[in-house]
């Protein structure tokens, strides 16, 4: 079989997805989930006297991928051009004594495919939640270890004021905790089965239709909706948006790690394994390959999110032209997010934090990032507005004449009448101007340590 997708090619698949997530969304598991629904349907109908118990027993016995004649099913697909009928016929063929006649009794294709997808999504979200938990522990360790590690904070791409690295990672951890909560909230609405027939009216499911649906969903450990959701795809759109939101967070984190790994910054470095090659031609390179891959894949994932809302645009009671898009969009979102999370698990668990370079970069602008601090020190005597005007003029003069901030301050009589040489030295120690970052981080850690994400 030819492999043309980045999710299937042996050389590329682990850069675009993980083996665990491919197992969830592979063809075998997709078909098995359909068979699980068909099996539960037969058992529910037999318990209510709708089909013979022997038929249900045989259907349940044979509703496993290993009993499916895939050559037969593939041939049937080419003939029928239908996504589910070939599998129904495959299960019918596998059943003995003619009991296959009772397969798929009274339901429609979308009942089986939608419910099967929900079962796959449940498996996929379990993996994502486990990955988030692992990443959260790494971020917790980084935050605790570096709550006092001074570094330069940057706004609009430029140096702004000192912060601590632990303060930065605490913000990442806080964001991740909200994503974990979003998944929990989403699960309440997402894990819902669908057994409603052709147009959602249950017309072919007998007068025990509600009991059938409740029993099937109970067997599958799913909830039952208040009404058909065949043309209402808000649950799946919400799923995609929650995953897209998680993806956006890690796009940001991975991109920041890339920026801070630039030789000119040199504040962070991702783990670099023995035998890993950075470049085919430059032997010295130690490329941040995992962070780069996370950004690459997360950028591609955004394209799926951009068209996800179109699946809500069902015409009338069902609409294949938009419904079938889900089979591509949502599994791909899971697949791509899985490797983004896997990349970041490795990076954040072994991230090298270069404290010395962070300290060095605090003085990159010759002390001018402490202008705010000096301004407030002068404000007690001059007033805030006058102090701001004075420090602004001195800063512009110093920058234009290639002087350090200390030099330009010591040349000004107004400043030296208020601030001593020692005062100026202390004010220009950037490592002591991190505000209340350490205390803020301590308070944050106390609050988040009891979160479900970190249990």
Gist of the model:
With 455 residues, the chain is mainly alpha-helical.
Q: How does this model look, in words?
A:
The structure is a single chain. This protein has 455 residues and is mostly helical. It contains 20 helices and six strands. The chain has helices spanning 13-16, 19-25, 27-47, 53-62, 70-80, 85-94, 109-145, 165-190, 209-219, 234-261, 289-306, 320-323, 326-349, 355-362, 371-382, 384-400, 405-410, 413-418, 421-427, 437-448; strands at 150-155, 158-164, 192-193, 223-224, 268-269, 352-353. The strands form three sheets. It has a two-stranded antiparallel sheet with strand order 1-2. A two-stranded parallel sheet has the order 3-4. A hairpin with a 2-residue loop joins strand 1 (150-155) and strand 2. Helix 3 packs across helix 9, helix 8 (165-190) packs parallel to helix 20 and helix 10 runs antiparallel to helix 11. The longest helix has 37 residues, at 109-145.
């Amino acid at each position: 079989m030819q492999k043309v997708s980045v999710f299937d090619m042996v050389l590329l698949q682990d850069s675009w997805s993980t083996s665990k997530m491919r197992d969830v969304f592979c063809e075998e598991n997709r078909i098995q989930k359909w068979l699980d629904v068909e099996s539960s349907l037969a058992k529910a109908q037999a318990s209510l006297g709708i089909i013979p118990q022997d038929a249900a027993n045989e259907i349940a016995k044979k509703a496993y991928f290993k009993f499916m004649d895939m050559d037969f099913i593939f041939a049937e697909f080419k003939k029928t051009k239908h996504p589910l009928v070939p599998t129904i016929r495959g299960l019918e063929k596998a059943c003995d004594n003619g009991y296959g006649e009772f397969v798929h009794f009274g339901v429609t294709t979308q009942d089986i495919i939608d419910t099967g997808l929900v079962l796959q999504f449940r498996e996929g979200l379990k993996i994502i939640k486990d990955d988030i938990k692992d990443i959260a522990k790494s971020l917790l360790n980084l935050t605790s270890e570096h709550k006092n590690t001074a570094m330069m904070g940057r706004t609009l791409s430029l140096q702004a004021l000192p912060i601590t690295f632990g303060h930065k990672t605490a913000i990442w951890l806080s964001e991740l905790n909200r994503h974990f909560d979003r998944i929990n909230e989403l699960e309440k609405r997402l894990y819902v089965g669908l057994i409603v027939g052709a147009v959602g009216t249950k017309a072919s499911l007998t007068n025990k239709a509600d009991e059938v649906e409740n029993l099937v969903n109970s067997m599958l450990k799913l909830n039952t909706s208040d009404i058909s959701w065949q043309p209402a795809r808000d649950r799946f759109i919400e799923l995609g948006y929650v995953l897209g939101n998680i993806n956006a967070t890690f796009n940001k984190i991975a991109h920041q790690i890339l920026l801070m790994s630039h030789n000119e910054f040199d504040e962070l470095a991702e783990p670099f394994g023995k035998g890993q090659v950075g470049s085919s031609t430059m032997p010295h390179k130690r490329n941040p390959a995992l962070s780069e891959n996370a950004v690459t894949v997360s950028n591609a994932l955004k394209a799926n999110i951009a068209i996800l809302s179109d699946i809500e645009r069902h015409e009338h009671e069902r609409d294949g032209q938009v419904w079938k898009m889900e089979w591509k969009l949502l599994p791909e979102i899971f697949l791509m997010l899985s490797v983004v999370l896997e990349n970041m698990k490795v990076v954040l668990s072994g991230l090298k934090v270069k404290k010395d370079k962070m300290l060095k970069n605090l003085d990159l602008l010759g002390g001018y990032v402490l202008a705010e601090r000096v301004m407030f020190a002068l404000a007690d005597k001059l007033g805030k507005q006058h102090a701001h005007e004075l420090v602004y003029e001195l800063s512009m003069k110093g920058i234009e004449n290639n002087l350090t901030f200390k030099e330009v301050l010591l040349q000004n009589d107004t400043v030296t009448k208020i601030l001593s040489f020692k005062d100026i030295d202390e004010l220009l120690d950037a490592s002591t101007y991190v505000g209340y970052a350490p205390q803020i981080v301590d308070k944050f850690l106390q609050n988040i340590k009891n979160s479900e994400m970190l249990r």
